[in-house]
Write a structure and sequence with these properties.
Layout (H helix, E strand, L loop, with lengths): L10 H4 L5 H19 L6 H5 L28 H18 L9 H11 L1 H12 L2 H16 L13
């Protein structure tokens, strides 16, 4: 009586470099066959052919970030909505405490406009000025640079 045994490859052939994938596949088949033999009386065909619908986690740490089971939207359950709001406020309060300000917002605005606004208006003014205005401004700057500094006689009141 002929047995239904598959021909096996020798260990020497499976150890060759190009046969590594086949070696892994044969090892997996052997493990599956051994496990089927061990649990053959407990497993049925439906269990063997179906995929698992469950994920088994070794730790419950992934449950820490989940939301509560009871939710309410658009006023359907005002008590639950109030509890959800309180929890949200509590989370926000813990996550970012209010830091004291050294400079008030108004002072910051005043300082910004005192330092930045004139410079910005000058650059924009230069951009839209005509050629005549540009040459006049340039000649005035050159005259100021070329003016010779004169000695000023001190007043007698200073003594």
């Amino acid at each position: 009586m002929p047995s239904k045994m598959k021909p096996r490859l020798s260990r020497g052939v499976l150890d060759m470099k190009f046969m590594q994938r086949t070696k892994l596949k044969v090892a997996k088949e052997d493990d599956d066959e051994q496990s089927r033999a061990l649990y053959s009386n407990e497993l049925n065909t439906k269990m063997l052919n179906s995929n698992s619908n469950f994920i088994i986690e070794p730790s419950y740490a992934i449950c820490e970030g989940l939301i509560d089971g009871r939710l309410s939207f658009r006023g359907m359950n005002p008590e639950i909505e109030r509890l959800m709001e309180l929890e949200q406020v509590e989370k926000d309060g813990k996550s970012r405490p209010e830091q004291p300000k050294d400079v008030t917002d108004q002072e910051m605005v005043e300082t910004y406009y005192a330092n930045q606004a004139p410079a910005a208006s000058k650059t924009m003014g230069k951009k839209f000025s005509t050629k005549n205005e540009f040459h006049k401004r340039k000649s005035n700057e050159q005259q100021r640079l070329h003016k010779k500094g004169q000695f000023k006689k001190p007043r007698q009141d200073d003594e």
